[in-house]
Amino acid sequence: MGRSHLYVVILDAVTYDLMACTCPHHVHRTAYCKHMTVVETATDDGTLDAFP
User: Fold this and answer.
1) Which residues contact 7 (CB under 8 A, 6 or more apart)?
2) What is the pLDDT of residue 1?
3) What's residue 43's pLDDT?
4) Within 13 A of 19's CA, how many CA atoms are on the CB side?
C-alpha cells in the first residue's frame, strides 16, 4: 500500500497567491509543486473556499 502524507499549502491572505508548500519538492528545491497546482485549481474553480 502507498503511504499517506499531509502537506500544507500556504496562500497569501491578501492576494490569494500561492506562497509555499511543506512538501520536500518545494522545501528543498523551491519549486512549484503538484500540491500548489491542485490548490490553485481548486480555489480558481470554486471547489475550495480558501478564505471563507
Assistant:
1) 21, 22, 23, 35
2) 57
3) 83
4) 8
* 46 backbone φψ class: left, alpha, beta (φ>0; ψ -120 to 50): left
- Which residue carries 480558501 as its cell? 50
**Low-confidence residues in the chain, pLDDT < 50:** none
pTM of the model: 0.77
Give pLDDT, residue 34. Answer: 94
Matching residue, cell 492576494 = 15
Instruction: In whole angstroms, give the CA distance from residue 37 to residue 52.
Output: 20
CA distance 36 to 44: 12
